[in-house]
Design a protein that fits this description.
With 372 residues, the protein is an alpha/beta fold. It has 14 helices and 13 strands. The radius of gyration is 22 Å and the shape is globular.
């Protein structure tokens, strides 16, 4: 089997989407090549003008010559010639490909290949007010692609079921290839120099990982944390996020510290040194920070909404995302190291997924849809 995975989203995406696409690419490389198959990591630069080609791409669709002529390019751009010709050009670039997997925002594929879309969640369809205009536009494009025959591969069973109900699809028609924590996330002592540079101590803070956006339910977390401080909690709350939009300000003050775009070394140290990860999101298609925290043996308290119960799998504490008092009590209780230790025991018993697991699930779905 020959599969093309479009990695163009890596040109501009950060956070969980980028980690999923990179992790899936690595897993697919081993899974396909180990069975005599082939993987092409594709980029279409015309789909992200102004951004560099991702380093991961090993097949790049060249722009038509007319787009390189300053005065003449205006007409074909206005008439959409490049996009209209993209499927045929991709077909020539990827001659013989069986499955074209869209990792992000590029909707075209070779006409002879089965089109598969990564479904991160359905919030762009159900709650467009939570997203930037560009994301809402792509989600509308996804709907058009599904109506034209593209297949959906979701990152959790919850997201798959939600999509089937929303779109009126037969049960089981949406595939599942759940995410995983990258191999770098392992138990151990945090790197002391990293924490010291941030003014933090091992086990001496609470952690939130996720962009500052509406569905992350950050106002409730901040309210609960501040009430817990009023009850004597002195652990700082460290909030790591790469993006902020949708009217959610980057939090700061009253024991709250924001870290923007932490690199992997910093993020690993923060997970390992945190007393507990707090994730009160109202909506997650997977909840990758939960998997990363569990992989590090870090205690987790997260929302009981959307895919998070599936992701946590009983290895931590679930709370109603609308119950501020429950969150306040939980945060206040974490001031007791014994309570955090009870949750840590649960996290360290959690089974660990790898990207090889994800790739096996994806390839099984590819084979299923390509055989029809």
């Amino acid at each position: 089997m020959r599969v093309a995975l479009d990695v163009g989203v890596l040109a501009h995406s950060r956070g969980g989407v980028a980690r999923y696409v990179r992790g899936l690419a690595g897993g697919l490389r081993g899974e396909l090549e180990g069975s005599g198959g082939r993987l092409d990591l594709v980029d279409v630069p015309a789909s992200h003008p102004g951004a560099d080609v991702p380093a991961e791409a090993d097949a790049v669709l060249a722009e038509p010559a007319y787009l390189r002529i300053p005065l003449l390019r205006r007409i074909p751009i206005r008439k959409g010639w490049e996009r209209a010709s993209r499927p045929a050009r991709l077909g020539r670039l990827l001659d013989g490909v069986d499955v074209y997997h869209h990792g992000g925002t590029q909707p075209c594929s070779p006409e002879s290949a089965v089109s598969v879309i990564t479904l991160f969640d359905t919030s762009g369809w159900e709650h467009p007010e939570w997203h930037a205009e560009s994301t809402v536009g792509y989600c509308a494009e996804e709907l058009r692609m599904v109506r034209r025959g593209s297949r959906l591969l979701a990152i959790s069973a919850w997201a798959a079921g939600r999509a089937e109900r929303y779109l009126g699809l037969p049960e089981g028609s949406v595939g599942v290839a759940a995410g995983a924590a990258d191999a770098l996330f392992t138990p151990g002592r945090p790197e002391a120099g990293v924490l010291a540079g941030l003014g933090l101590s091992d086990g001496g803070y609470l952690l939130h990982v996720g962009s500052f956006v509406p569905r992350k339910n950050i106002p409730l977390l901040l309210d609960a944390y501040r009430e817990a401080r009023g009850r004597g909690t002195r652990l700082p709350l460290v909030m790591v996020g790469a993006e902020a939009w949708g009217g959610v300000a980057t939090p700061a003050g009253d024991g709250v510290r924001a870290i923007r775009a932490a690199d992997d070394r910093t993020l690993l140290a923060l997970y390992r040194g945190a007393r507990c990860l707090l994730l009160p999101s109202r909506y997650e298609g997977l909840g990758l920070p939960v998997l990363e925290a569990l992989a590090c043996g870090t205690a987790v308290v997260c929302s009981s909404a959307a895919a998070l119960p599936e992701t946590l799998g009983g290895s931590g504490l679930l709370l109603d995302p609308d119950d501020r008092e429950a969150w306040t009590e939980a945060i206040a209780s974490l001031g007791d190291p014994g309570r955090a230790a009870e949750l840590t025991v649960l996290s360290r018993k959690a089974p660990r997924r790898t990207w090889a697991d994800t790739a096996r699930e994806a390839v099984a779905f590819y084979r299923k849809v390509a055989s029809r």
